[in-house]
Amino acid sequence: MRQTELLIHARWIIPVSAGDPVLDYHSLAVDEDRITAILPTQEARSSLQARTTVELGESALIPGLVNAHTHAAMSLLRGVADDLPLMEWLQQHIWPAEQQWVNEQFVHDGTQLAIAEMLRGGTTCFNDMYFFPEVTARVAAGCFMRACTGMILIDFPTRYAEGPDEYFAKGLALRDEYMHHPLVSQAFAPHAPYSVSDDVLRKAQMLADELDVRIHMHLHETAGEVDEALRKDGRRPLARLADLGLLSPALTAVHMTQLEEPEIAQLAESGASVVHCPESNLKLASGFCPVQKLIDAGVNVALGTDGAASNNDLDMPGEMRSAALLGKAVAGDASALPARQLLRMATINGARALGLAGHTGSLEPGKWADIAAVDLNTPECQPVYDPVSQIVYSAGREQISHVWVAGRPLLRERQLTHLDIDELLGRVRGWQTRIAAGEAGR
User: What does pTM read for this prediction?
Assistant: First the structure.
């Protein structure tokens, strides 16, 4: 019998590969961090001998979910100043709180909290935009979590950097440190058109081309953003980015709730990706991304949660369901955004937006063994006629039983294997006490 490190037996394997197959009674083999075989369970039992065998019964294996837009450390601001419009929320509460509290320890603890939550929801990779990205990278690597850490860019000084030159210098140092890391990659992360000047955006584009990295940016998030841009220089933000040369396959544009038909065609022609954050957009009343129109035009649309301060969770299974229901309502078509499309948005499309589709986002031999198991043998998920529909419309993150990143078990029977939750929650409660006191005095 052939030897393998890990062999997982499941009722279904949903690889999210060409043709959208659902493989019944199949098993998955892993060696040296990567998937080596997917084969019928009967054949796997007779031909493979594994160092570790996992029997998952009536479960489905799916690719680990890719959260294509987060501000992970903002988990420590979950519930601060809820139920306010975006700019009031940002300018009067979030930005002052960040100026007061955000430091390396804040980012360390907030990112650990976010990773714990994401792993318990089946997420194996996240695309982050926040201050002190070198801390986010270090925490992700220490938790064995896959991450794309944003080299943050913003015009004004913060506790992280005094101005654009320092933001660039720190970002490039981060890039140099993690250039060959197996789990952590980087993208330039200019915050938004209204907070980043033309010169900074031009330099980011030049360096992105030179270093072959992506650009991750909030764009067309609200009607107010677009109106202000028109008032200032007569151009919508997307037109300004196009004039600056940023509209390209390297761009990952987040939110995109304010789009006109010609802009959808322009996005498709450029090869840019869009990240849809339905629950954050709903909570902040930012508008509705025309997801089905983007997909019909050929745009790669991924899925993200945004930060826990504006969502208020990092629940990708929940985000899939919200995106499906919202997408049908926006399109006025019950057949819009079917379950298989949502699973693609939460997996391979996210990997594509991050430039990682050759390595993760689907369960295929040769790719990293980034895997989530969904237990469908529960009253909430029975009977199962179509496991993909059940995962999107019925299962919640509490059905995620196991998670592997590069073949390493990070969640086993709902228990995290590499994080001390009690100790982490103790630190979180300390932040809660300090931040609440600061808000009370604001």
Answer: 0.97
